[in-house]
């Protein structure tokens, strides 16, 4: 609960009630604008998100601009505070995002992280975020961002502040990944999340993608970064004239291949080079499938041992699932542009004779790529 008791013509004698506490506005607040007062304004009184998180936006006194401190990252990681005003003509909600380098325990440059965060918020289309170059500040040596929410959606966003906090947390994670690999510009970047049982097999298969590109006539470099169980895979063409879209289409196709059937390859007389490239590809796919089968067998064996130790009656085995690279894909960016995963996997090089799980493969087209 937060109320404003205005039983006096002098605003300095008004009483601000926050839950069970009362504060004299003249001692804890100040004039912010015409008929608007900032609260609180001194270090002796602090208003935390925990104090008011369950209060509806419409219930806040519209004369007060509230300085609300973040606590337990409820407003999002690195959010220091927000300014909130339930004005009848133009509501206001402003965020302060900040990293203090002296308290920073991360291994990434906080100023680079702030720059990437700025770009992410600037390009967001889901939330109405007002941010500009002037929002960037290095006051007191801190890496700081100030941004506001469009007044038309302030009430709606505040009542869904948990969802917005989750978006900010995801944005920080993405900013960290961008800094980790030097940005997404002029690259194809894919993030994969694998469990520990399939990570090695799937990562090895992804590493072969660069060789697959070379067999298609595309010369590129790759980078693998592992971060808390996630794999960030970036592909950079050596020739700047190579279309990144072409690489992304090849990646989409390559990720579908483990679900294809090589028995559907037409019986033709291939030239030795095309046949060699095809056999190399088949070998990598067989290696991936073999590794996944072995991992699944080990998990089933471990389930059996656990069942024998706990109970004497037979227990159904855990339903394990072979996670292929296509299953672990979290996002895909092409030159800073995020791709829709369903469209990415459904599009690309459509190769179409055999159909399985919506995947179409035209082996003749692949052979023609190898020949070229």
Question: Any descriptors?
Answer:
12 helices, alpha+beta, 5-stranded antiparallel sheet, 372 residues, 9-stranded mixed sheet
Question: Can you characterise this structure?
Answer:
The chain has helices at 25-28, 49-52, 110-123, 154-158, 161-180, 199-207, 209-215, 244-256, 272-310, 325-328, 341-346, 363-371, and strands at 2-5, 15-18, 21-24, 30-33, 36-39, 47-48, 64-69, 79-85, 92-99, 129-130, 136-137, 143-149, 188-193, 220-227, 230-237, 329-334, 337-338, 354-356, 359-361. It has 372 residues and is of the alpha+beta class. The strands form four sheets. Strands 4, 5, 6, 7, 8, 9, 10, 11 and 12 form a nine-stranded mixed β-sheet that branches. Helix 2 (49-52) links the parallel strand 6 and strand 7 (64-69). Helix 3 packs across helix 5 and helix 6 (199-207) packs antiparallel against helix 9. The N and C termini lie far apart (72 Å). Residues 313-322 and 348-361 have low confidence and may be disordered.
What is the percent of helical residues? Answer: 25-40%
Secondary structure tally: strands: 19
Distance separating the two termini: 72 Å
Number of helices: 12
Output mean pLDDT. 85
Gyration radius, to the nearest Å?
28 Å
Structural class: alpha+beta
Inertia-based shape: elongated
In brief:
With 372 residues, this protein is an alpha+beta fold. The protein contains twelve helices and 19 strands. The longest helix has 39 residues.
Task: Please render the helix and strand layout as text.
Layout: E1 2-5, E2 15-18, E3 21-24, H1 25-28, E4 30-33, E5 36-39, E6 47-48, H2 49-52, E7 64-69, E8 79-85, E9 92-99, H3 110-123, E10 129-130, E11 136-137, E12 143-149, H4 154-158, H5 161-180, E13 188-193, H6 199-207, H7 209-215, E14 220-227, E15 230-237, H8 244-256, H9 272-310, H10 325-328, E16 329-334, E17 337-338, H11 341-346, E18 354-356, E19 359-361, H12 363-371
Parallel strand pairs: 5-7, 6-7
Antiparallel strand pairs: 1-2, 2-3, 4-5, 7-8, 8-9, 9-12, 10-12, 11-12, 13-15, 13-16, 14-15, 16-17, 18-19
């Amino acid at each position: 609960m937060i109320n404003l008791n205005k039983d006096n013509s002098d605003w300095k004698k008004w009483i601000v009630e926050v839950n069970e506490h009362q504060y004299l506005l003249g001692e804890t607040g100040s004039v912010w604008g015409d008929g608007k007062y900032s609260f609180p304004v001194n270090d002796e009184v602090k208003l935390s998100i925990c104090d008011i998180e369950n209060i509806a936006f419409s219930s806040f006194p519209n004369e007060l601009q509230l300085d609300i401190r973040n606590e337990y990252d409820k407003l999002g990681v690195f959010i220091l505070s927000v300014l909130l005003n339930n004005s009848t003509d133009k509501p206001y909600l402003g965020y302060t995002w900040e990293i203090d380098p002296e308290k920073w325990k991360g291994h990434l440059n906080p100023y680079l992280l702030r720059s990437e965060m700025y770009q992410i918020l600037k390009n967001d289309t889901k939330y109405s975020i007002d941010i500009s170059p002037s929002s960037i500040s290095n006051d007191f040596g801190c890496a700081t961002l100030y941004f506001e929410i469009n007044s038309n959606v302030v009430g709606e966003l505040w009542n869904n502040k948990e969802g917005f906090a989750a978006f900010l947390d995801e944005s920080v994670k993405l900013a960290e990944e961008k800094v980790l690999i030097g940005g997404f510009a002029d690259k194809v970047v894919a993030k994969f999340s694998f469990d520990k049982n399939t990570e090695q097999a799937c990562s090895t298969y992804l590493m072969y993608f660069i060789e697959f590109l070379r067999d298609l006539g595309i010369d590129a470099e790759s980078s693998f970064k592992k971060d808390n169980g996630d794999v960030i895979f970036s592909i950079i063409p050596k020739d700047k004239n190579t279309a990144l879209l072409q690489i992304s289409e090849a990646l989409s196709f390559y990720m579908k291949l483990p679900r294809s059937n090589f028995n559907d390859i037409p019986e033709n007389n291939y030239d030795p080079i095309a046949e060699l490239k095809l056999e190399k590809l088949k070998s990598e796919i067989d290696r991936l499938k073999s590794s996944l089968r072995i991992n699944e067998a080990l998990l089933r064996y471990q389930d059996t041992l656990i069942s024998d130790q706990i109970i004497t009656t037979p227990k159904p085995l855990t339903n394990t699932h072979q996670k292929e690279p296509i299953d672990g894909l979290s996002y895909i960016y092409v030159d800073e542009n995020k791709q829709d995963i369903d469209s990415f996997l459904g599009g690309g090089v459509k190769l179409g004779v055999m159909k399985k799980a919506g995947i179409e493969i035209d082996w003749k087209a692949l052979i023609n790529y190898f020949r070229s």
